[in-house]
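Much of what follows relies on a compact textual record of a protein's fold. A record is reproduced here so that you can trace the correspondence yourselves:

. . .
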Amino acid sequence: MRRMMSLLLCAVLLSSLCACGGGGTEGEFQLWFLSRTGQERRTMASQSYRGEQSVPAVMAALLSGPAEGGRMESPIPEGTELLGWTRSGRVLSVDLSGEYASLHGVDLTMADSCIALTLLQLEGVEQVAITVQGANLPERAKPVLNRDDFFFSGAEEEPVELTAALCFRRAGGDELGVELRVFRLIGSESATEAVLRALAAGPRESGLTVLLPPETEVYSARVEDGVCYADFSAAFAGQTPESEKEQELVVRSVVESLCSLGYVRGVQILVEGETLDSYGSYPLQGVMTPEET
C-alpha cells in the first residue's frame, strides 16, 4: 500500500487569489495549473477564466488544460473526464474517470490542489471532494479539501538553493561519477524528491549515464529523524539489472545522492510503499548509509 501523502502544503501567491473568497463576476475567476520555470521546479499558477461559472463548464475548461504558448501545464492526466458531480450543502463532490487514478504522490497532491482551488471559487462551495469512478483513492490522506488545507503567503517566497551530489554511472565503466546539481526550491517543495527525480531523468554532463531503470517513478521521499524513505513505482524492482554489480550501483546511486544533502543520514528503499529484502540479488539492509552500500 502506498504511503499517504499530505495535501496540506501547496504554497500559492495571495495576489493570484482574489477570487477565492466566493463566486465573483466574470473576469475574476481563475483556473489553477502548474508553472514549470525550470527542470526541477513546479509551482502553482492561475489563468483567468471568463466563461460560465458552473461545475460542468469550469471542469471542462480545467480538463482541457491551459492556453498554449505559455509555461503553464496541467497536472491532470490527458483523457480525464468529469463523470458526474453533486452538491450537498457547501460540499461539492466531483467524480472523475479512471485516467485520474494513474496519479501518485506529489503528482496526485498537485492535481487535487488545482481542482480544489478552482472549484472553491464557485459561489457557496467551501469544501471539495474528488473521487475516481465513484471511489476515493486510498493514497489520499484527506478525501475532502477546504481553504484551510492550503497555505497562502502574502508575498512570493524567496527560493532556497540546495546543492546535491548526484551519482550516475560513468559511461563505459562500473563506477559512479558525481554531478553537482543546484536545486532552487520554494516553500514546501521537497529536496529529496527533487534529487530522486533528477536521478531518474539522467545526467546533464557528458561522460555519465542514468542508472535508475526506465519508467521508474518517484512516489515520495519523506525524511524522518534523518532517514529518507524513498518510495518508487513497481518499475524500479521490475526492471532490475541482471548483474549484482549493476544492482549495487543503482542502490549506491540512490543512497549516496540523497545523503549528499547533509541532513539525510540514511536511506530505506521502498517499492509501492513496501520494504525490500534485496534488490535483485543485492541485499538491502534496512536503513542504509553510504558506508554500508
User: Anything to note?
Assistant: The chain is about 20% helix and 35% strand. Helices lie at 55-63, 105-119, 191-201, 235-238, 244-259.
